[in-house]
Amino acid sequence: MKEYSDKLLRTPRILVTGKPGIGKTSLIKDISKEINKIRIGGFYTEEIRRNGTRVGFKFVSFSGESRLLASIEPIGKLKVGKYYLVESLDILGEVKEDIMKADMIIMDEIGPMELKIGELREIIYEGLALEKFVLATVHRSVRLEGKLYELDRFNTQKIKSEILQLIKEYFGSR
Fold first, then answer.
1. N or C end: fewer C-beta atoms under 10 angstroms in the chain?
2. Count of CB atoms within 10 A of residue 165's CB?
3. How many helices (H) and strands (E) does the chain have?
4. How confident is the model over 89-128, as pLDDT tens digits?
5. Which of helix, strand or coil describes residue 118?
């Protein structure tokens, strides 16, 4: 743990948390579009909705590939809350490779679902251990070291501006 703490002092770890549906994924996606000159590796998750009701989640890599991650319909033996999880994702090798080549890592979300899938959990922790700028959303039950922002419906723009400023300071004017 000391090695992880020492690395944290040298490279930014920006963590965003907040209630479900508050806009964490939207914030991450907006920021990733604004920093298009920085090579990003990682992933985000998107809700799958049917008739206005959330019925699952997609796992999306920053290279554009997506796969089903979780569903209210049985798709595997693993389960978190009402969602059944896939036991593996065939694009994780590509995601890991992209993270290794990236200048910045973005992960949305680090939560119970993502951490329950063994290979994805390994990629998350390996990414956090790298000496690279990390921007991640974290489920409110997950505790990680880093600068933590709590998103609410009033502070999204302020937090976005602060994070973009930190990125600019770290990477320069790229």
1. N
2. 10
3. 6, 9
4. 999 999 999 999 999 999 999 999 999 999 999 999 999 9
5. helix
